[in-house]
Amino acid sequence: MKFLKLNLTKMTKYLKYIFFISLILLMLVGCKSGKLPRPSSEFYVNDFANALSLATKENIVYYSNEVYEDTKKIKDIGGTQIVFATFLLDENLSSGEIDITALYRKWGIGKNDMGIFTVLFFERDDDGLLTLSESYIEVGYRMEQYLTAGKMGRILDETVNNADFEFDYDLAVAKLLFEYLIIVTEDIYPDFYEPFTYDLDEFVIERDNSLGIDYSYGDIPMSFFYYLFSPYSSIFEKILLGLFFTFVVGLGGTGFFIKRSRGGGGSSGGMRVGRR
Amino acid sequence: MNKKIISFGSIVFIVLLVIAIILIVGYNTLVDRKEEIVAKESQVLNRLSQRDATIYQLLGAVEGLQEHAENIYEMITDARKAFNDAKAAGDTEGMIEADAMEVKAVRELIIVIEDNPNVNATPAFLTLMDEITANENAISVARKDYNDRVAEYNKSVRKFPTILYAKLFGFEADKPYWKMDGNNEIPKIEFNKND
Questions:
Q1: Cβ distance B119 to B113 under 8 Å?
Q2: What's the CATH code of the domain at A93?
Q3: Whether A161 and A93 share a structural domain
Q4: CATH topology classification for B2-166
Q5: Residues A71 and A183 both lie in one domain
Q6: Half-sphere exposure of B86 (CA within 13 A, CB side)
Q7: Nearest by CB to B134, which of A154, A271, A276?
Q8: Is residue A109 in a domain?
Q9: Residue-range definition of the domain harbouring residue A241
Q10: C-beta atoms of B134 and A272 within 8 A
Q11: Which of A138, A155, A268, A271 has the most B C-beta neighbours within 10 Å, making it the best mutation to test the interface with B?
C-alpha cells in the first residue's frame, strides 16, 4: 500500500513535469513564426507601413466589415472580405519575401473564396517620404469571375498606379476601396444592395476633419490597463481586476476583450495583377 | 486453462484490431491524398485551358498581331493536341511535356509583342496582358499546389508501414511532379509594368 502511495506521488510529480514540458512545447510551436505576419486585430486593414490615414483605415474597416456581415449568409457567393495590407520595404524586407498567395491563404480571406486582397509595398525616398513601389490585387477562387484580371489592372491604373495620386496614396487607397464597393454592390450582389456611389471630394473633407482618435478595437484592453495601473483605482480594485484579468486570460485569452475580425476561411489560386 | 485461452485470445484479438485500424486509417489517408492530387491536377488543367482561351482572344482581338499569329496558332494547336492526347491516355508526364510546349508558344508571343511596340498600346492588349500574366501566376500556384500534394503522397507511400500494403491496394509508388525547371515558366512581362 505504502509502495503504491509512493508510486502515485512519483507519478503525479512526473505528470506535472510532462504537463509543463508539453505546455512549453505547445507555446514554442505556437510562437513559431515565418516571414508572414499575422493579421491585425482589425483584420481588414493591416497598415504595417504606416502609410494610411485614420479616416481611410476607418472607412476600410467600416465598409469591409459591413459587406462581410451583410453577405456572409448568402449561399455560395456570400462573405466577401476586402482586405488591405501595406509593407515598408527596407534592408530587412524585400517584396519577394512576402508570398502574397501564402499570406492570403494564411489569413483565410473571404468566405466561399470570395476575398479581395490588396497589397501595397512602400519605400522611403531620400527625403524620408513614403513612395509606392509595388501594388497587387489578388482575389479568391470564386471572386475571379467578378473581379477579373482585366478589371483588377484597370482599377490599379485608375487608383494607386495613377499619376494623379502620386503624392496622395492614401486618397488612392480610399478610391480603390470605393471602386471595390461598386463591384460588390453592382456585380456581385445587385439584388442585395443599391449601387454604391461616392464623392472623393467629400471623403477628402471627412479625412481633413478627422479627429485623429483611433477607434480600433485594440484600444479597449489598453484603457483597462491604464485604469488598472492608474492612481484612480484602489488597491482592492487592482487585486480584483488583476485576478479577473489573469483568470480570463488563462481561460479565454485576450479574445475576451478584443472583438477580433477574422478571415472567412477562403483561399486563393494566385490570380493576381500587379504594377511596379 | 480456460482463463489462459481467453486471455491469449483477447491479446490476439486486440493485436488484430490494432492492425486492422492501422490498415484502414492508412488506406483512407492514401485515398484522400490521391483524391487531393486529382483535384489539384484538374485545377492545373483548368488554368491551362484558361490560358489557351486568353491567348486566342489576344491573337484575335489585338490589331497588328494577326500577321504574326499563324505560327503561334500552330504552336498552341500542336501543344493543345499533345495535351488532350496525354490527358485522354491519363498520361500525366505527357501533359507536363505538352504544358512546356505551350509555354514555348507563349514565349514566342512575347517576343512578337516586344518586337512590335505599336501592338502594346491598345486598351484591349493591356487588358488581355493582365489576363495572361494573372493566369500565368495562377498556373504556377496550381502547379506548386499539385507538387505539394504529390510530395505528401509520395512520402506517405514510401513510409512504414504504408509501404508494406500500398502496392497491395494498387497505389503507385512515385507520382510524377509537375516540372518547374524554368522551361515551363513564363518570364516576367514588363510591357506595362505588369506583375
A1: yes
A2: 3.10.310.50
A3: yes
A4: de novo design (two linked rop proteins) (1.20.1440)
A5: yes
A6: 17
A7: A271
A8: yes
A9: 219-256
A10: yes
A11: A271
A137 domain-assigned: yes
Contact in structure between A273 and A153 (CB atoms under 8 Å): yes
Q: What is the pLDDT along chain B (195 residues), one digit of tens a residue?
A: 678 888 888 899 999 999 888 888 888 888 888 888 888 888 888 888 888 788 777 777 666 666 666 777 788 788 888 888 888 887 878 888 888 888 887 787 777 777 776 666 667 777 878 888 888 889 888 988 988 898 888 888 888 888 877 777 777 777 777 776 666 666 565 544 444
Pair (A52, A155) in one structural domain: yes
Q: Which strands make up the sheet holding A45-47, listed edge to edge?
A: A45-47, A81-88, A115-124, A130-140, A268-275
d(CA A47, CA B137): 25
Q: Number of folded domains in chain A? A: 2
Question: Does the beta-carbon distance from A272 to B130 stay under 8 Å?
Answer: no
d(CA A186, CA A194) in angstroms, rounded, equals 8
Nearest to B108 by CA among B46, B54, B187: B187
Q: Which of A195, A173, A55, A39 is nearest to A118 (CA)?
A: A173
Are A180 and A236 contained in the same domain?
no
Distance CA(A78)–CA(A73), nearest Å, equals 6
Residue A220 has pLDDT above 50, yes or no: no
Q: What ipTM goes with this model? A: 0.74
Looking at the predicted structure, is the pLDDT value of residue A141 above 80? yes
Sequence-ordered list of residues with C-beta below 8 angstroms from that of A70, at least 6 positions apart, any chain: A192, A193
B138 CB neighbours in chain A (<8 A) are 269-272
Model confidence at A2: pLDDT above 60 = no
Locate the domains of chain B by residue range.
Answer: 2-166
pLDDT level of residue A19 (50, 70, 90 thresholds): low
Nearest to B131 among A150, A161, A268 (CB): A150
Residues of chain A above pLDDT 90, percent: 33
- For residue B126, which residues of chain A lie inside 8 Å, CB to CB? 153
Residue A123 lies inside a defined structural domain of this protein: yes
* Distance (Å) from the alpha carbon of A124 to chain B's nearest alpha carbon: 20
pLDDT of amino acid A98: 87
Please tell me the pTM assigned to this model: 0.74
Residues of A (210-239) whose Cβ lies below 8 Å from B: none
- The answer to whether residues A226 and A191 belong to one domain is no
How far does the CA of residue B27 sit from the closest CA of chain A (Å)? 28
Identify whether A1 is part of a domain.
no
Q: Encode pLDDT of A93-130 as tens digits.
A: 888 888 999 999 999 998 999 999 999 999 988 888 88
Q: What is the pLDDT of residue A276?
A: 84
Of chain B, the end-to-end C-alpha distance in Å amounts to 79
Chain B residues near residue A273 by CB distance under 8 angstroms: 130, 133-134, 194-195
Which one of B126, B141, B147, B189 would you mutate to disrupt binding with A, by most A Cβ within 10 Å of its Cβ?
Answer: B141
